[in-house]
Amino acid sequence: MNVRRLIPAAALAGAVALGATALTACSGAAAGTGGGKVGVTASFYPMAFLAEQIGKDHVKVDSLTKPGVEPHDLEITPKQTAQLGEADVVVYLKSLQPAVDKAVAQSGVKNVVDAATLTALETHGSSGHDHGTEEGHAEGEGHDHSHGEAGKDPHVWLDPSKYAEIAKGVGAALEKADPDHAADYKKNTDELVGKLTALDTEFKDGLQNTASKTFITTHSAFGYLAERYGLDQEAISGVDPESEPSPARMKELQGLAKQENVSTVFFETLASDKTARTLAADTGLKTDVLDPLEGITDKSQGADYFEVMRSNLKNLQKALGAK
After folding, report:
1. In this predicted structure, what is the pLDDT of residue 282?
2. d(Cα 154, Cα 133) in Å, to the nearest integer?
3. Residue 130 contacts by C-beta under 8 Å, 6 or more apart in sequence?
4. In what order do the strands lie in the sheet with 111-114?
5. Per-residue pLDDT band at 55 (split at 50, 70, 90)
6. pLDDT reported for residue 241
7. CB-based burial of residue 240 (10 Å sphere; 0-12 exposed, 13-18 middle, 19+ buried)?
8. Residue 72 banded pLDDT, cuts 50, 70, 90
9. How many angstroms separate the CA atoms of 131 and 133, rounded?
10. For the whole prediction, is pTM greater than 0.90?
11. Which of 75, 94, 103 shows the shortest CA–CA distance to 149?
12. Measured distance CA(250)–CA(234) in Å, rounded
């Protein structure tokens, strides 16, 4: 069985070695061949950002999810599977992207960092409704991708404290893969954790006193953020941003908006804003952006994780009536 699994990967790796120029033109220099640098392949933006911040000049980071692509929908190309096989280190979040899980399992890479093992995953849904959890889709709805192990919420990077825990694990993996620069990785990890701790404090202070604690968003990406800062997330869809909400759910949210003094319906940059705008129009609410930071594009309200998170904080403060 192992032989059957490894033959395609080996064949693909050989094909890429023969066509290295084509691969380089397509997605940057192949991972693991970055002129003496450690080749890191990351599954999507939050994982790539950690590797870049901690590795700095010692690493060359390639992301499997290109800017503008919704990570939940990623499909892996044969070239990307080969790229994974050549990486020195792979950083991913198991169960968020099934295609990545499969490719990583087949890659044979020794240094694999699964962010889901570095912090405690929890089950979140909308406050009191469990939309987007395993319970919310137990009746055979089938459209949710069941992200996360046993219905666990994978969006851990939106809690700066949990993201810091993952950063420490990524740093340790880079130290192991490249012991010659271990001191630099440790220093960079400590700096990044310090910045994330400061961001956590900004959110705590900024959301401590608000007129409302409830926010409505497109999909259940903000469970960790809500729990960390004492807020209630109400999602139009489940964990899958492309799933269609039922008419009953839309009606329920209209009532909830009045009851909980909700002023704003949040949409995001990589998924459709149609349902958010429909709900806002039906209830006379405003719309604004709350970015789940699954990727950075020219539509993002910031150039990196920290800028977008601070933009999210500002938008939440405005919507919730921060005092």
Report:
1. 86
2. 11
3. 136
4. 59-63, 38-42, 89-92, 111-114
5. very high
6. 56
7. buried
8. confident
9. 6
10. no
11. 94
12. 11
Helix (H), strand (E), coil (C) string for the chain: CHHHHHHHHHHHHHHHHHCHHHHHHHHCCCCCCECCEEEEEECCHHHHHHHHHHHHHHEEEEECCCCCCCHHHCCCCHHHHHHHHHCCEEEECCCCCHHHHHHHHHHCCCEEEEHHHCCCCECCCCCCCCCCCCHHHCCCCCCCCCCCHHHCECCHHHCHHHHHHHHHHHHHHHHHHCHHHHHHHHHHHHHHHHHHHHHHHHHHHHCCCECCCEEEECCCCCHHHHHHCCCEEEECCCCCCCCCCCHHHHHHHHHHHHHCCCCEEEECCCCCCHHHHHHHHHHCCEEEECCCCCCCCCCCCCCCHHHHHHHHHHHHHHHHCEC
- pLDDT for residue 27: 34
> What span, in angstroms and rounded, lies between the C-alpha atoms of 233 and 221?
9
Residue 102 has pLDDT above 50, yes or no: yes
Dihedral sign (CA 185, 191, 193, 196): negative
Q: Which two tokens stand for residue 292?
A: 């789940």
Largest Cα–Cα distance in the chain? Answer: 63
- In this predicted model, what pLDDT tens digit does every residue of 244-255 receive, in sequence order? 778 888 889 999
Residue 204 exposure: Cα atoms within 13 Å on the Cβ side: 9
What is the rounded average pLDDT for all residues in the chain?
A: 83
2-44 per-position pLDDT tens digit: 433 333 444 434 333 333 333 333 333 334 444 689 999 999 9
- For 117-134, what is each residue's pLDDT tens digit? 999 999 986 543 333 333
Q: Which residue has the tokens 């800017």?
A: 67
Query: Do the Cβ atoms of 257 and 285 come closer than 8 Å?
Result: yes
Amino acid identity, position 222 = F
